Amino acid sequence: MGIEGVTGRISDIQSRIIALQTQQTGAARKTTSTTNATPGSEFASYLNDAVATQNTTAVKKDYKLNSKGIPEELAKYGNGKIPSNELVQVGNTGHKLWAPAAESLNTMIAAAKKDGVTIGITDSYRSYDEQVDVARRKGLYSQGGLAAKPGTSEHGWGMATDLDLNAKALSWMRKHGSEYGFDENTPRESWHWAYKP
User: Can you spell out the DSSP letters for 130-169?
Assistant: First the structure.
């Protein structure tokens, strides 16, 4: 996300804070929140509410896709060669995805959490060298293993994630994943979810 994107999100958060403040004008506040408030805690509360509201709406945008369904802005780099400035961290994990995929995943994880479901993440973007290593360690999918041929992995586009899902979370994903652009598209791998812009 570039500086324009960050500036836009800050403006959106500020607008939401103002809207929340307006909604609360005239409303009774809980005594515990006012008597135990520390300087800045009220602002932090508004900010958290605004971010939570932002994170409950799926990120939708149209991207120009090539004939293989890859966004042209990524295809120009090549699979496993996406520069770090095109990748965004997922939540507070060390995992990164293409910015729209990461934003949608963050939104989806927040929505699941509101439903009492925890979704973890175990893998994300893989460079070409990482794809070679995974294929060596886990074998090629076409030969009964778990790895795509290096240079063809959805992970190499920053558009796939491996999720840590218990039965409840897997059920939630199968019901709601497509609402956030994620598709369970790899047989034998219920943890693998690909983002489809």
Answer: HHHHHHHHH-BGGGTSSBPPTT--GGGGT-EEEEE--HHH
Q: How many alpha carbons lie under 13 Å from residue 76 in its C-beta half-sphere? A: 5
Structure tokens at 61: 């945008």
Q: Which two tokens stand for residue 102?
A: 């990461």
How far is residue 126's CA from residue 94's CA, in Å, rounded to a whole number? 12
Token representation of residue 75: 């295809």
**Beta bridge partners of residue 195, listed in sequence order:** 182
Strands (E), the chain: 87-89, 96-98, 120-123, 160-164, 182-183, 192-195
Give the separation between CA 85 and CA 2, rounded to whole angstroms.
Answer: 8
Largest CA distance in the chain: 66
Q: DSSP label at 76?
A: T
DSSP label of 29 = P
Tokens at 158, concatenated:
């920053």
Tokens of 119: 């979704």
Helix (H) or strand (E) holding 90: none
pLDDT digits (tens, 9 = 90+) for 53-105: 444 444 456 779 999 999 999 999 999 999 999 999 999 999 999 999 999 99
Q: Supply 72's token pair.
A: 């042209």
Tokens matching residue 9? 């999100």
pTM over 0.85: no
